[in-house]
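Exercise: predict the fold of this chain.
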Amino acid sequence: MVYCRSGGDAMRGMTISRAAGACCGSLSREGFEDKELGSVVIDSRAVQPGDLFVAYAGEKADGHDYISAAFARGAACCLAQRVPEGETGPVILVPDVQDALEAICTEYRRSLRIPVIGITGSVGKTSAKEMIAAVLSSRFSVLKTDKNLNNQIGVPMTVSRIAPEHQAAVIEMGISDFGEMSRLAQIARPTMAVFTVIGHAHLEFLHDQDGVLEAKTEMLDYMPEDSFAIVNGDDVRLRALKCRQKKLSFGLSEGCDLRAEEIRPQGFFTRCRAVYGGRSIALSIPAFGRHMVYAALAGVAVGILMGLSDEEIARGVAAYETVGRRGAVLETGYLTLIDDSYNANPDSVACGIDSLAALSGRKVCILGDMLEMGEREKELHFEAGRYARERGIALVLTCGPLAREISRGAEDIGRHFETMEELTAALPALIRKGDRVYVKASRGMHFERAAEALKELK
């Protein structure tokens, strides 16, 4: 069984006094020191009895204003930088709640004796996370990162939710700058690392792909020598990676330890065979796109190292479910919508175009800005449009200041719109019955609006 949320006794043995000691905090009142904490929660509306509510002061809301609400819902304790006037519940006072949260969850992780699989990469982290969790859940009780909680808040929250019933944890770890992975890995302390792809994400901060590799592989500094680094062997940088851990490569090329063979797309499923040593496992992947073969191979690799049988691995892969707007396929009766609007970078856009190109029928891309691309942003957007044209896409519709370059690269098949309202208004005239339509953009562009408009076409 796979778990995303655990409350109540999640942080078994983590008392209020132990938490306060771990983060060098001071308790606002006595008498609660021996009370055990549940999971970490940052939204007072999600508090369950026994949880630790962390009062973050954000741009839109200050968690300190919701401390009373958290206690009303049963919070055992709050972690905060100040105590609201008149508050009588136990509060751990600290100078910085982020540093304190990391310290508490680092301390809790030290008490755990279960496998922790850390997943990172420029593309495919969430798909790999979901696939690995699906495979492991065919035998084990698994906790996985909920939704996209993969950052400096999400990783400690996930660690806090590891409860006594869990036999493995699958933790997605996303970063955008140097040093961030070190902080996450110090908390999660993975016993196994999975690296999906070293691509063009966050180049505004990481400069180039060598910088991406350097930042992502900070994880290895916090892993023991007898642990495994599972890497995409078709990625030139990961293939050449030198590390003190054991290394297992997966991919499509001959040199990979674990290889996919006999890949056969069948509509929105993909069938293949995973070959590792003398083992050959027939897989049916219930997801759109050739790139999902890599996610399946990551799941197979972890399953093999965790001692699963071929039958358990195949059953886990077949149980995979797409999350949110990450390649979700919908047959509307008028068109086929591939909603991949959750996020975008050049590598994931190219993967999506490749997968779309493999389908029958008239193919249309609706593409928006790819953010945080650094100095090469215009060039990378232009190349995306050119690639769509080269792969036989019939029409490329774009919106966004950078996406104008996509349209330029697409030449005669490109059409740019200044606003989302203009784009959605033009869809009835541009989209034909039976079209395969792929929607992709960075999260901040809100291209889910285009996806929703497509669902209404008749």
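Check your answer against the key: The chain has three domains: 8-94, 112-318, 328-455.
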